[in-house]
Amino acid sequence: MTAAALRQAFTTLVLVALLLVPALPAFAHAEQGQVVGFLTGLHHPISGLDHVLAMVAVGLWGAQLGPPAIWVLPVTFPLVMAFGGFLGLVGLPLPGVEVGIALSALLLGAAVAFEWRPPLAIAGVVVGVFAVFHGHAHGTELPPGQSGLTYSLGFVMATGCLHLCGIAIGLMHRWQLGRAALRALGAFVAAAGVYFLAAAFA
Amino acid sequence: MNRPGPGAGAGLRWLLVAVAVGFWPMQASAHLVTTGLGPFYDGISHFFLSLDDVLPVVAMAILGGLQGRRGGRQVLFALPVAWLVGGLAGYFAGGPEVARGIAAVSALVVGVLVAADRRLAPAVVLGLACALGLLHGWMNGASVSAAKRGSLALPGIATSVFVTVALVSALVIGMRAPWLRIAARVAGSWIAAVGLLLLGWSLRR
Question: What is the ipTM of this complex?
Answer without folding.
Answer: 0.74
